[in-house]
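Technical annex, item 7. During the second reporting period the consortium partners agreed on a shared format for inverse folding records so that results from different sites could be compared directly. Each record opens with the tokenized structure and is followed by the designed sequence. A conforming record, contributed by the partner at site C, is shown below for reference.
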């Protein structure tokens, strides 16, 4: 059964080819994910902020990188090696960390975020808790990309003591864009160099047309 006349089909096809369909979507005031600039090629789409992830239910949409030499580990309680790593999570029961014990010397571990849509934001920020203790702690970096090369926006190296510390990172340079973050650890030359992350939060102050939707919490998924 034909639902459209030949003339109607021709007009519909012309409208699609002229970009009318895409323009209609772009101008829609429905609560749908906006484009947010350059496509980063990352997976998932977070456009409801504040976003939080304490790794209580897996990695919460973050993914192990395929091009590094070491994986991150989700952990509850202390790390296996003595005199390095936390004794417990900073919040909840779980955290993620990079195990520095042999044969993990001089290796790189990368954990990639989901896509973060800052199209409607003005002052996005990232905060997280980190723990770096031991006599051979390497380097922790937070890096950002809008589709090209990654830029380091936070870095810390060496023994920072046994307490969990807080990193506050300004992401306002990326407002109006889609963004992917990644946590990068470079281990050192000995086993006392575990690096841990917990209680990661991302905010995006804005007058979003999707305001009123509950904040996204990766721990609830």
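Designed sequence (site C submission):
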């Amino acid at each position: 059964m034909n639902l459209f006349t030949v003339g109607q089909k021709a007009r519909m096809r012309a409208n699609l080819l002229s970009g009318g369909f895409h323009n209609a979507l772009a101008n829609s005031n429905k609560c749908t994910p906006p484009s947010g600039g350059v496509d980063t090629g990352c997976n998932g789409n977070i456009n409801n902020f504040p976003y939080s992830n304490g790794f209580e239910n897996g990695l919460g949409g973050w993914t192990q990188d395929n091009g590094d030499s070491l994986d991150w580990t989700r952990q509850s309680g202390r790390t296996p090696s003595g005199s390095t790593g936390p004794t417990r999570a900073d919040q909840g029961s779980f955290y993620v960390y990079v195990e520095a014990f042999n044969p993990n010397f001089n290796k790189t571990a990368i954990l990639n975020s989901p896509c973060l849509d800052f199209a409607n934001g003005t002052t996005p920020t990232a905060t997280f808790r980190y723990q770096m203790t031991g006599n051979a702690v390497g380097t922790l970096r937070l890096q950002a990309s809008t589709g090209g090369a990654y830029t380091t926006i936070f870095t810390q190296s060496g023994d920072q003591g046994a307490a969990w510390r807080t990193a506050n990172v300004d992401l306002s340079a990326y407002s109006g864009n889609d963004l992917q973050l990644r946590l990068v650890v470079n281990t050192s030359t000995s086993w006392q160099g575990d690096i841990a992350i917990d209680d990661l939060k991302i905010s995006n102050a804005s007058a979003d047309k999707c305001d009123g939707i509950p904040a996204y919490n990766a721990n609830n998924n």
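The mean pLDDT is 83. Residues 70 and 109 are 5 Å apart (CA to CA). All partners now use this format for quarterly exchanges.
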